[in-house]
Amino acid sequence: MAQRLLRKVCQKCAEKRKITKNELDNFRKILKNLPSRVKLESELNEESVVLEARGCKECHNGYLGRVAVMELFEITDEVEKLILKSPAEAELREAAKHAEMVSMAQDAVIKILRRMTTVEETERILGSL
Ligand SMILES: [Zn+2]
């Protein structure tokens, strides 16, 4: 399954800012098909706050540690059977189509909104959102 490591933003020195209009539109588009089992802790709106990396003595250019973003899908019986047979990724992908999938971009946006990483870091690793 696809997974990427993003740098975690340092909580000591990060600066808070409101999301831009562009980011809001983008995030809304990305989260539109988010499976209902995934809950955002706070509503996504004009007042949503994200973090911006700064840098202090305790971190590296505003980042400290890593966080994984990944595609996730609910393990259905069908998928579980496939995993037990240790299937090729292609087979799993096929099965995943029938499950409710969380895309890597969706997982990344959720982690931005949870203030674990930044928009800049996400775009550096995943490309523009
Ligand atoms: Zn810091």
From TrEMBL:
UniProt GO MF annotations: ATP binding; ATP hydrolysis activity
Domain of life according to the entry: Bacteria
Keywords: ATP-binding, Nucleotide-binding
Annotated Bacterial type II secretion system protein E domain residues: 1-124
InterPro entries xref list: P-loop_NTPase (IPR027417), T2SS/T4SS_dom (IPR001482)
Pfam families reported in the protein's UniProt record: T2SSE
GO cellular component terms given for this protein: plasma membrane
Gene3D superfamilies: P-loop containing nucleotide triphosphate hydrolases
Protein family membership: Belongs to the GSP E family.
Name of the featured protein: Type II secretion system protein E
